[in-house]
Amino acid sequence: xxxxxxxxxxxxxxxxxxxxxxxxxxxxxxxxxxxxxxxxxxxxxxxxxxxxxxxxxxxxxxxxxxxxxxxxxxxxxxxxxxxxxxxxxxxxxxxxxxxxxxxxxxxxxxxxxxxxxxxxxxxxxxxxxxxxxxxxxxxxxxxxxxxxxxxxxxxxxxxxxxxxxxxxxxxxxxxxxxxxxxxxxxxxxxxxxxxxxxxxxxxxxxxxxxxxxxxxxxxxxxxxxxxxxxxxxxxxxxxxxxxxxxxxxxxxxxxxxxxxxxxxxxxxxxxxxxxxxxxxxxxxxxxxxxxxxxxxxxxxxxxxxxxxxxxxxxxxxxxxxxxxxxxxxxxxxxxxxxxxxxxxxxxxxxxxxxxxxxxxxxxxxxxxxxxxxxxxxxxxxxx
Amino acid sequence: xxxxxxxxxxxxxxxxxxxxxxxxxxxxxxxxxxxxxxxxxxxxxxxxxxxxxxxxxxxxxxxxxxxxxxxxxxxxxxxxxxxxxxxxxxxxxxxxxxxxxxxxxxxxxxxxxxxxxxxxxxxxxxxxxxxxxxxxxxxxxxxxxxxxxxxxxxxxxxxxxxxxxxxxxxxxxxxxxxxxxxxxxxxxxxxxxxxxxxxxxxxxxxxxxxxxxxxxxxxxxxxxxxxxxxxxxxxxxxxxxxxxxxxxxxxxxxxxxxxxxxxxxxxxxxxxxxxxxxxxxxxxxxxxxxxxxxxxxxxxxxxxxxxxxxxxxxxxxxxxxxxxxxxxxxxxxxxxxxxxxxxxxxxxxxxxxxxxxxxxxxxxxxxxxxxxxxxxxxxxxxxxxxxxxxxxx
Lengths: 383, 393
What we know:
The structure holds 2 protein chains of 2 kinds.
Chain A: H1 3-7, H2 11-16, H3 21-31, H4 69-72, H5 76-79, E1 83-84, E2 87-90, E3 96-112, E4 115-122, E5 130-134, E6 138-145, E7 154-155, E8 179-185, E9 190-195, H6 201-206, E10 210-216, E11 225-234, E12 244-247, H7 253-256, E13 259-262, E14 266-273, E15 280-285, E16 290-294, E17 303-306, E18 308-312, E19 316-322, E20 327-332, H8 336-340, E21 345-350, H9 355-362, H10 366-372, E22 381-382
Parallel strand pairs in A: 1-5, 2-22, 3-6, 5-10, 11-14, 13-21
Antiparallel strand pairs in A: 2-3, 3-4, 6-8, 7-9, 9-10, 11-12, 14-19, 15-18, 15-20, 16-17, 16-19, 20-21
Chain B: H1 10-34, E1 50-58, E2 61-67, E3 78-81, E4 85-86, E5 89-91, E6 101-106, E7 116-121, E8 127-132, H2 143-165, H3 168-172, H4 176-207, H5 214-234, H6 241-269, H7 273-286, H8 288-295, H9 305-328, H10 332-363, H11 371-387
Antiparallel strand pairs in B: 1-2, 2-6, 3-4, 3-7, 5-6, 7-8
């Protein structure tokens, strides 16, 4: 009897019952077919979206509520521009030395309003600090492991084997309570990343141990408004597939709070794909085209005038574009599924005179604006 | 030598009864307050939610009913439909306590005739999924649909029982031996119904939140129903036995038909009208033997048309009720209880009709396990089994 009730769960089974359509015809005549098509039914008005949502496009495709960034200890909007240029001094040789401290910490972070993820972090945030330096600088990164699992830092770039941050090379995995100093010269210039390379690799990455690693060319890049966007996702139920997709961790954050930019100014995005479980992520810009620098290791674009690029796991690059018209413009992966699962935001393009108001609306201050336009030649705290 | 137990006053008797309860309270208070030294054994929180009914009350609207059958309160901060986060409202809002329930209303533009998937994301990231196999407006209680659903119940329940009863005049002309064959056939079809009802009850029980303990509940309710019906049967006068037996068969079959009605009503509620109507034909054919079973004990009586009408109503009427419940207010708890009661009732009449067969066989001077009885039983099971081909997918 109700065995078929269960079989109904499969759409295919339902279609198969078309075999009984002659009989079904008899029945539907008897029922006047109105069980499925009530006459004169008017479409319902959808319930209004929850306050604080649906700032940009996509109707009711949103998350309900807001994330407590203060509790998290980081704000995706701030992450866009908070370069960590380290503590700067000079070696006797005259080479610039940049010193960083990275601490592995376990922390529950709010990745969607009301949804908490037991993350493994660098410095208590996901993504970890955006390390920024200039090609040829000496980098000295002190790594403390304050968690209950072994971890490493594996930097993309050119460096000696023992600095590679993988099991079996140099100190290998740094045990709980352990400490190690990674030291190497920054090369080549480009948009790179770092991540934990302890085993099991998948888990150490998707739990949040990664960040952007930007090496500026010696001569810098042309002045622009710069943002870092780390494409990430979270497998909240640990089934080997992601539930929440984002840039800089919090789903739909830039849909709730569009990123303010000025009409006519050059915008540069350092885009990193550190997605786990999905092979490819992409970036599509609305109502515009951009130049793309694959891996950021060239000063000439490797792709010109495109509006969508794709990045496999671990790939990254630099986008440059300028908006011609003011207005709200979406960006998202052209993988619709990821878009609807949180990786979607927009730029609020305004006339320069309206920029201060736009900053206030986005909840950021003049410091945020200054960091965004500080230029590509890394500064830093003086030792 | 044991000393006789001292007889105390009423108050000291109460004191002795209450003492363990007071001590139990103290132990519980200690455990709650201190953790009983087991704090370090406490693992991560376990989240468990049972999604009940998913309905499509209007175009562009999905409603999900859920029960928290996990050990602690749960919050559902986000909802996904078809792999997309979606806005929603919860009633009541906020955390759902253990054994508490909530209704989520999601403004989602679902597509008629297509499948959709709803996923609830808990605050700890657990995902609970429910499927809408074929999207269609959930039927709403209005008089015309109510009447149409009633008609479906009539076709499936009452009509086949009445048609089956029309064999009564023919059955009266049969020899005692042939009649015994028919009674054995009745046992066969009842045994088939008992097994079917058991399996159906288990399926509904599996849909229940865990705390209902569905599987053992079905067995226990059936067992208690058998016991109660046997106890009632023990007080019966011998001369009214055949009609009484027919009524008990009718009650058992009626509860079984209630389950069939539930399934058909739910099919329409799930939006599969084609399958539902196909089932109507199948069930009508399948159920025709039930009428034979009900009147079989009456061949030596002439109870009158009124009794026949009443028997048909008792056996077939619940199908109408079931269709209404399944279509408008499906409730797996009630479905499980009704089916378990039906199982008990059927088992009890299997016992009674079985005894009748044994008695008649004895009168004919034959062993109980003879080819005639076995043949009747097999034909009864076979009829049900093969006509069920029409309604099993």
